[in-house]
Amino acid sequence: MKIGDKLVYPMHGAGEITGIEENEVGGVLNSYYVFRLPTSNMKLMLPVDKVEEAGLRELISPDEVDKVVEVLTAETEQIQGSWNKRFHTNLERLKSGDILDAAAIARNLSRQNSKRKVSSGERRLLDLSRQILISELVYVCNKTPEEITEWVDKLIDVPPLDND
To answer: Does any domain span residue 135?
Structure first.
């Protein structure tokens, strides 16, 4: 990996390696990749020697955007069980780092939320799945987060989310 690489960090989304810093933690000097996320302007520090364990992956190709569109426009999946079971099922899917899983979760929870408000736990998953999805599409489609958010909302066919 090198400065300028754009990668996906599971449970956070896509970002860019913007630098390498040395930091001392517990009396030990370590090297860290500085990873910036475009949608939240969050800065993450990834230990250079732990990158493999972090599960970073390359961005999808522009050709794979069609698969994301198919997922976003598909019928809503109904996960059976309590909100707690749905929450844990969706959380495990998000941990995979697969953009198609993030798209399906964003679609399902967005549509559910537009009919009746989802629980606070599911709302956090909805926000996280959208962050993961939108951050990667920003890079792949070379658009702003606002443009991608509007496009995703139209594909899912729900009103824009209010952020209260």
So the answer is: yes
Do 47 and 23 reside in the same domain of the chain? yes
Is there a domain that residue 143 lies in? Answer: yes
Has residue 164 been placed in a domain?
no
**Residue listed under structure tokens 């809503």:** 76
* Total of domains in the chain: 2
Range of the domain at 10: 6-58
pTM for this predicted structure = 0.85
CB-based contacts of 89: which residues, under 8 Å, 6+ apart? 79, 81
The C-alpha atoms of residue 102 and residue 74 are separated, in whole angstroms, by 14
Q: What is the CA radius of gyration of the chain?
A: 17
Dump pLDDT digits (tens) for 48-98. Answer: 888 888 888 999 999 999 999 999 999 988 777 777 888 899 999 999 889
Residues 6+ apart with CB under 8 A from 117: 123
The predicted-structure confidence for 16-31, as pLDDT tens digits, reads as follows 999 999 988 889 899 9
Give a yes or no: residue 42 inside a domain: yes
